[in-house]
């Protein structure tokens, strides 16, 4: 597994304290920030060390993760510098998902404070920032709109260029930067997307994808069935329970060419969960005589869906002649998925690249990085086009920064 750290990489996550003003207070908040900077002088950069470098502020809010990141691309090349990477998560009660309106309200509540904290943590001033990058899509409509409004507002307040970023491309570019993977087949797995991707002719081409629900959504919804906690994430809690599972139960295996289907698998595992709940001690394994447990259900679900993902990824590797696999997206944090993919890659003489939860899970720094890559080619988003969209294909973006 290859996942070298970046220079100055930092990570901040978890719950913040104190109630913050709504997004409508952004102008007053930023004015306070400027006054504090003038009074204290602690955030000025003596000797202008940022001269010639490019700095972007990235805003991510396509689902229940709100992320703000500040990144620096050195003028003379070399590793990028992550100056701040802050994240705040909306956690719904056990057995429930997160509704768009509630998630948007959460983002509006926290986004101003996160921007302020990111600038302070990064040690940069507003004048140092070259552009404001935000997630244009895909994602949930209301949360996307909340963050887009903030991006437009500070773009006008600070007189900075806007850059709309494809969320999927952000994951890919951040994964490539951190791991050093050159031209991998990308497995992008999250709560909203499941895609097998390879680069060709300045596009990230989709070789296979989910035909219905994403693999992360399948895992999250089964967590709701079991009524387990959504903190820190339902998929993470499924993974921990699966580590204690021993019995592999039969589930549908739905690979169709290069595509996958997960809705039928979810329906089947839900039926098994209902059987177990009805008679917890009356269901035993036919071979060992041991009781079937909730952990066995989680184990069986993971093993089945991950085997499907490994199969279509291997087929894509064979097609494009690649020996590298890069796993990105929130589900990419799953250690069992990384392990199964690693076994396949080693058999082919290849390698697997993955990042930890700082960069796999939705974050603002990936939006800042991808946006700055586009900005360096001359791309900007005008105010009248600074919209957001729930459907934004990975292969729609012209990747001008790659040859």
Structural commentary:
This protein has 403 residues and is of the alpha/beta class. 40% of the residues lie in helices and 17% in strands. The protein is built from eleven helices and twelve strands. It has helices at 26-40, 100-122, 141-158, 167-179, 215-226, 234-242, 263-278, 294-320, 335-347, 357-360, 364-376; strands at residues 54-60, 65-73, 81-89, 131-137, 161-166, 185-189, 194-200, 203-209, 255-256, 259-260, 324-328, 351-354. The strands form three sheets. It has a five-stranded mixed β-sheet, sandwiched between helices. A five-stranded mixed β-sheet has the order 8-7-6-11-12, sandwiched between helices. Strand 1 (54-60) and strand 2 form a beta hairpin. The longest helix is centred in the last third of the chain and has 27 residues, at 294-320. It is globular. Residues 1-51 have low confidence and may be disordered.
Name the average pLDDT.
89
Distance separating the two termini: 27 Å
Residue runs with pLDDT of under 50 for 5 or more positions: 1-51
Instruction: Return Rg in Å.
Output: 22 Å
Silhouette: globular
Task: Give the ordered list of helices and strands.
Answer: HEEEHEHEHEEEHHEEHHEHEHH
In short:
This protein has 403 residues and is of the alpha/beta class. 40% of the residues lie in helices and 17% in strands. The two termini are 27 Å apart.
């Amino acid at each position: 597994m290859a996942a070298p750290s970046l220079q100055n990489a930092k990570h901040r996550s978890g719950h913040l304290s104190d109630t913050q003003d709504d997004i409508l207070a952004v102008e007053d908040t930023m004015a306070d920030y400027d006054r504090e900077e003038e009074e204290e002088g602690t955030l000025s950069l003596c000797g202008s060390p940022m001269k010639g470098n490019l700095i972007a502020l990235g805003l991510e809010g396509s689902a229940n993760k709100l992320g703000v990141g500040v990144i620096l691309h050195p003028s003379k090349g070399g590793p990028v510098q992550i100056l701040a990477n802050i994240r705040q998560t909306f956690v719904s009660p056990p057995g429930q998902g997160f509704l768009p309106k509630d998630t948007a309200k959460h983002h509006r509540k926290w986004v101003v404070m996160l921007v302020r904290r990111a600038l302070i943590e990064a040690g940069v001033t507003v004048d140092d920032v070259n552009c404001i990058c935000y997630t244009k899509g895909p994602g949930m409509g209301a949360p996307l709109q909340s963050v887009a409004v903030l991006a437009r507002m500070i773009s006008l307040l600070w007189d900075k260029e806007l850059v709309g970023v494809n969320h999927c491309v952000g994951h890919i570019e951040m994964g490539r930067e951190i791991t050093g993977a050159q031209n991998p087949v990308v497995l992008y797995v999250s709560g909203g997307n499941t895609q097998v991707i390879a680069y060709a002719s300045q596009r990230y081409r989709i070789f296979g994808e989910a035909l219905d629900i994403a693999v992360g959504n399948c895992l999250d919804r089964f967590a709701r069935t079991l009524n387990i906690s959504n903190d820190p994430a339902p998929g993470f809690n499924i993974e921990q329970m699966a580590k204690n599972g021993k019995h592999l139960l039969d589930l549908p295996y739905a690979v169709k060419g290069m595509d996958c289907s997960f809705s039928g698998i979810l329906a089947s595992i839900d039926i098994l969960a209902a059987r177990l709940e009805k008679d917890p001690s009356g269901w035993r394994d036919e071979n060992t005589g041991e009781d079937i447990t909730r952990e066995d259900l989680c184990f069986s679900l993971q093993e089945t869906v991950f085997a499907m993902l490994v199969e279509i990824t291997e087929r894509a590797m064979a097609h494009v002649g690649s020996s590298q696999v890069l796993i990105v997206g929130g589900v990419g944090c799953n250690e069992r998925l990384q392990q199964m993919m690693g076994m396949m890659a080693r058999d082919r003489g290849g390698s697997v690249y993955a990042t930890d939860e700082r960069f796999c899970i939705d974050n603002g720094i990936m939006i800042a990085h991808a946006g700055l890559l586009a900005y360096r080619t001359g791309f900007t988003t005008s105010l009248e086009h600074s919209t957001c969209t729930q459907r934004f294909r990975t292969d729609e973006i012209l990747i001008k920064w790659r040859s």
